[in-house]
Amino acid sequence: MILQGTIVNTLAVLLGASLGALLAKRLPERISATLFVGIGLFTFFLGIKLSLETENPLIALLSLLLGGALGSALALDERLRGFIGKLSWTSAGNASETLEAVFEDNSREADAKVKENQAARSSDYQADRPDSQSRHPMHGVLNAFLLFCVGSMTVLGCLQEGMGRGSELLLAKAVLDGISSLALASAFGGIIALVAIPLFLFQSSLTLAAVYIAPYLDESSLANLNGVGGLLLLGLSLEILELKSIRVLNLLPALILAPVLTILQTFALGFL
Question: Are the C-beta atoms of 169 and 223 separated by less than 8 Å?
């Protein structure tokens, strides 16, 4: 079955997110936070491991610079945040207050109460984390999307499955994503399950297109793709660990540019 790995991966995310949402009310905050840190550390380790596979650091650098410029020009991060914000507004922490303010806009008493509740919530978040936005559901969805859909494990796994070389890599990824979705859902809620939709669409599209893409990718192209994917995972790990806010989404074009630049380099060397 050509989409076996993708289907299992999607079901693992749905199952993990469901369990995480159920356990969120029972898990102490310190356990949820520890799971979250564990995910960040493992992502950091995986990013280092994959980034070291780069055959040509210059291509990795050019891919990041050109990809970042292109992604910023297209405002990929802002567009995706806006799109996910529309999907997650009903689950956001301030959704009920927002609706109340809309329907009772002329009521000063209601407005004052909303502001008081928002201030209290903001104070609580600041006490728990250095960034009050870090526990917003949209933040969790974005992190989950990057963790599940961005990375060479996703690309290489889909290529292998599409070329008929087995689904082992995607099945291993399913285990990691299932555990990660459980931890993320325990922190941000069941809205994390929404990531299963772009995950399935993205991975199934890559798998089905692999038969056309694979012939153009040699070992050097895949190695440089691994390296750039690893660097993006390093950036994601810093975001998860709340060490640095990085708009990794704006760097996504680098995943396309890495193999393209490698192919162009091969052609250029062939003429010399």
Answer: no
Distance CA 141, CA 195 (A): 7
pLDDT means per 10 residues, the chain with 272 residues, are 90 93 76 80 87 92 95 86 60 40 44 49 40 56 77 78 83 87 83 90 90 80 87 86 85 89 89 76
Q: What DSSP letter does each residue of 142-163 carry, written as one string?
A: HHHHHHHHSSHHHHHHHHHHHT
How many angstroms separate the CA atoms of 115 and 97, rounded? 9
C-alpha–C-alpha distance, residues 204 and 1, integer Å? 12
- Which ranges of the chain does DSSP label H, i.e. alpha helix? 4-23, 29-51, 57-74, 76-88, 95-103, 108-128, 137-149, 152-162, 168-188, 196-213, 219-240, 253-271
* Dihedral pair phi/psi, residue 165, rounded to 5°: -100, 15
In the chain, where the domains are located: 4-92+136-271, 93-135
